[in-house]
Amino acid sequence: MKPTDIRIEEIAFSYEDFRYRTPIKFGGVALDRCTLLNVDCAVSTRAGKRAKGFGSMPLGNVWAFPSKKLSYEQTLAAMKAMVERIASIARSYKEFGHPIDITWALEPQYEQESTAVEAALQLSEKIPVLCTMVAASPFDAALHDAFGKVHGLNCYHTYGPYFTSHDLGHYLGAEFQGETLDRYVHKQPQPRLPLYHLVGALDPLEEKDIAKRLGDGLPETLGEWIRQDGLTHLKIKLNGDNLDWDVQRVVGVDRVTGKTQEERKVTRWYYSLDFNEKCPNVGYLLEFLKKVKEQTPAGFERIQYIEQPTARDLKANRHNVMHEASRIRPVVIDESLIDLESIQLAREMGYTGAALKACKGQTQSLLLAAAAQEFGMFLCVQDLTCPGASLIHSAGLAAHVPGVAAIESNARQYCPAANVRWAKRFPGIFRISDGTMATEALTGPGLGAV
After folding, report:
1. Is the N or the C terminus of the chain less surrounded, counting Cβ atoms within 10 Å?
2. Among 287, 280, 349, CA closest to 314
3. What one-character-per-residue DSSP string does 356-379 give?
4. Which domains does the chain possess?
5. Share of the chain above pLDDT 70, in %
């Protein structure tokens, strides 16, 4: 028990819906909209001091609850039903604690509620754990935000033993006994981080790829984006079920990028490759890498890491080990990363990196970041096309976790309307000019989105 502990007093939530300026394709689905979940949380300390925190996150049901049986509307309704139950559970919890301990106590209850939602909505599929994590993440974020604000501190100053009641062994097992979370996070943010720009599978690379221009003042070809934002890091979305297309997509991206960077007199840039679990097996990935190296040796050398090439259910796909692929480039788990067991299993299967995401919760992201650092894994932070406060949350995570290679910011491409009211307050986060995001301003109380 700490005098700094807080208790939840009030919880409220609301939604915002936005249309994308252009569709984004992942996991074989072309998505043209998003629903933001916004959460307000009032807390009090043992001494009666009060503060309010705020959390926001896209529900991202196509990513968090992929289904071939259920429609977009059905999986979104399931997530909203989970939100209702999560809010009810959080409101009824009256124990004092640090946000990590409150969330640690509540998460098992959240997961138990998924069975009730499945029955109530007569769903033909189980609600994935990842879906519940995304629905709960803005509640967790609001708690951390409120905790920092009630103590007048940025939340990354509140993860040491003065504020926390347990060492990491309590959450991560005996090998972390005696370790404290503050060892694995920076109190001050890195001032700048490279920005990974998304090259979606539907995105035009050059003028001939555009049937009709949008004419909304934003770039529309890859070359235009590179020139406007000074890009040096590109994340290439691939299909995973069409080898020739995937290879030619990387070759095409490298050709257009090489021409544009030559004009800019830039000699060094990087790619990450994202298959969104669609590769049928590791053999596909190895053959893909072989062909890319043959057709564009320089482009192959620019590959920094590969993200989640095969199915997220690692236990059901133990044969798809990544040892050989990881000797070529870091192979990162994303959708698979939901807890300590999943990161341990991934390491056994040859994965060498982990993608942290704010949409999995501040608490889980910090704990898994500590585990990944201790295991010597490659780290990156990716978003869920996060706009507004959710991007600030994501950027703060990236800027405070040691060793993170880069940050994503896809909403500026696909959903800029949701960024408008935040861009003036945090211009360095929402306006990219030199290929990097200016994260040095993320020092305000709570999560920094004051």
Report:
1. N
2. 349
3. E-GGG-HHHHHHHHHHHHHTT-EE
4. 6-165 (3.30.390.10), 192-438 (3.20.20.120)
5. 100
